[in-house]
Amino acid sequence: MSAKPFAFPIKVAPEDIDFMGHVNNARYLNWVQDAVLAHWRKLAPADEVASKAWVALKHEITYRKPAFLEDDVIARTVLESIKGARAFYSTVIHRGEEVLAEVKSSWCCIDAETLRPARIGEEVARFFFPREQ
Questions:
Q1: Tens digit of pLDDT for each residue in 87-111?
Q2: What is the distance between the alpha carbons of residues 59 and 42, in angstroms, rounded to a whole number?
Q3: What's the predicted TM-score (pTM) here?
Q4: CA distance readout (Å), 66 to 23, 62, 87, 123
Q5: Between 27 and 2, the higher pLDDT residue
Q6: Residue in 131, 105, 120 with CA at minimum distance from that of residue 2
Q7: For the chain, which terminus, N or C, has the lower number of CB atoms within 10 Å?
């Protein structure tokens, strides 16, 4: 079961624009990373945020429409599941009702000090999946 969606507003900056006049495709992945990390920082306990970091393992992205300078863009990300040290997210990037991109991604939680994988325990998962626990 997925957790509640998290909305992350995005400001398209001049440096996001490529030679074709729209947002460079690689920038979408930065937006996904920003949204996922903002979701973690918002819901996880402060001690977990301070002691953990995240690394991307895989992104599968489908581009639907281009984004342009000064577009109002929102990334809606949903934590679909947690398995051990891995988290699986689905993120949809919107401009109004238009879907610009859809991204499935997997992440590994690591201990910020040792840089080794760090399991996400049930007590932390409850912050993200309150009804399941």
A1: 999 999 999 999 999 999 999 999 9
A2: 22
A3: 0.91
A4: 7, 12, 28, 40
A5: 27
A6: 131
A7: N
Classify strands 86-95 and 72-83 as parallel, antiparallel or unpaired.
antiparallel
Tokens of 38: 């903002």
Q: Check residue 77 and give left, alpha or beta (phi > 0: left; psi -120 to 50: alpha).
A: beta
Cβ contacts of 79 within 8 Å, gap of 6 or more? 2, 3, 6, 39, 87, 88, 89, 128, 129
CA distance 46 to 16: 31
**Cα angle, residue 82 at apex, residues 65 and 48 outer, rounded to 5°:** 105
Strand partners, 107: 56, 87
Residue written as tokens 């401009």?
A: 95
What is the SS3 assignment for 123? helix
| Residues shown for the chain | 133
Contact 111, 118 (CB under 8 A): yes
